[in-house]
Amino acid sequence: METNSNKKGSAVSLKLLIDTQAKRVLFAEVGKDCVDFLFHIMSLPVATIISLLKKQVMSGSLPNLYDSIENLNASYVQPNKNKDTLLKPVVPAPCSSIPLLLLADTPTEKKFYRCGQPCTYNVTDDPRTLCPNCRRAMTTTVVYVAPPPVQETGDEGGFVKGVVTYMVMDNLEEKVVNLGMDEAVRLLKASLQSKKVLTEVFLSS
């Protein structure tokens, strides 16, 4: 039995082994792509997790803090600062490449400035800063050049090797499901609240 594939982004397959009497998932057989997704959850910034789970009715005070920053008037924010640096933080490169969560929001890039005269190599993030040499305002924008992406060893990428060990047991029901965007967000929420994540995500009605 297979669930409908999620329309948003890619989906990966999981083979669940279910104890039908206890109505719980005993374990899942998964591939490298699913394991990489689960491991990279640990790399997600808190603000990214909150924005993903806001529609899931999160408990606690962190969603309120997120909303407070989101609704903060720009007049209270320091010059050359942007609320999106907190609300949409930079996601680690390995995690941003995971299609399940569609982390497509581009974080706000920080701007840097230098003196317009060729008298110093000093750099600042506030264009009101005076050059310590000529005392002129450091208003010339400096172009930041990002380093090249780190090349993964081998061709697989991700976090774990593409080796899968399968387990077979008697008296179990086998069910193949897809892990797409909706399931990934539900799994993320359940992992913060429960120790029976697979059962809650894939067996709950």
TrEMBL record:
Q: Which Pfam families match?
A: DUF674
Domain of life of the organism in this record? Eukaryota
InterPro entries from the UniProt entry: DUF674 (IPR007750)
Could you tell me what this protein is called? DUF674 domain-containing protein
Species of origin: Sesamum alatum
